[in-house]
Amino acid sequence: MPYRVKSAESDLSAVFAKIYEDNAKTIYYYALRILGDPAAAEDATHDVFLKAWKHFHEFRNESNPRTWLYRIAINHCRNILKSHYHKNFSTAEDNRELEDMAIQTDTPLKVIENQELGDAIQKTLDRLPHDYKEILLLAADEQLSYQEIADLINTSTDAVRGRLHRARRLFIRYFQKDK
Amino acid sequence: MKKEQLKKVTQETEQNLNEMQKQVKNEVLEFNTVEELIRYDLNKVELPETLWDRIRKSISGIPASVPFWKRLFKKQ
Questions:
Q1: C-alpha dihedral over A21, A26, A32, A35, to 10 degrees?
Q2: Residue A9 belongs to what domain range?
Q3: In a domain, A53, yes or no
């Protein structure tokens, strides 16, 4: 959707408020599931929007504000995880053996609706390498194309497809094991 | 409370609990993909109510940056 950015401060504030309204929950959720802590996710979302405000000139009318915010959020969360916050930052490259598992991904996931569902999803995501967690959360956003995801994580669309497939398999394996 | 009354209340409570457990058990959700499950989870998560106020306070003293060429034209 187009956001008309004019230079008058009041116009900018109104556009920014609209961008927040349309995207804050998605960005907060991304930070929540990546960092695994509501307070840290709230702080991260605050920082993402603050950075976005400071760099508003980089946002063009034609571009999708969602991808722009994701770019800031991805970098911000990676920095948090790589610094003091979490020490066990692993990628799929560090866990090659995980990719050889034979898991069915075409059977539906059956879950019982209860308050622990969010915790179960968090627990499963926490067991995944960071790049798998990242790609699953991005792919879950229907507003993003594979090309946009590829651009966000600096890879090709083929690599996105492959990584996503492996991430799904591993998620299902851990999710069903933990149930 | 008399012993019989207490027994009745206990029975009623147990019955209610059983019915609640049945209801919970019946609500089995099915997702075709992991992404669907994540989207469902996202919809259930609530954004902290005070977040926008926090952001608004933080940005209130900072002017949003505008491209250098816009600043340049404004000055002339």
A1: -120
A2: 1-92
A3: yes
Distance from CA of A168 to the nearest CA of B (A): 6
A171 belongs to a structural domain? no
Percent of chain A with pLDDT over 70: 77
Q: How high is the pLDDT of residue A90?
A: 64
A72: in domain:
yes
Cβ contact B42–A112 (<8 Å):
no
Strand partners, A48: none
The token pair at A43 is 């702080």
ipTM of this complex: 0.84
Task: Tell me, yes or no, if A101 comes closer than 8 A to chain B by beta carbon.
Answer: no
- Output the CA–CA distances (angstroms, integers) from residue A10 to A2, A4, A15, A58, A133, in the order listed: 18, 13, 9, 18, 38
Chain A residues within 8 A of B54 when measuring between CB atoms? 46
Against a cut of 0.80, is the pTM above it?
Answer: no
Indicate yes or no: CB of A7 within 8 angstroms of CB of B66: yes
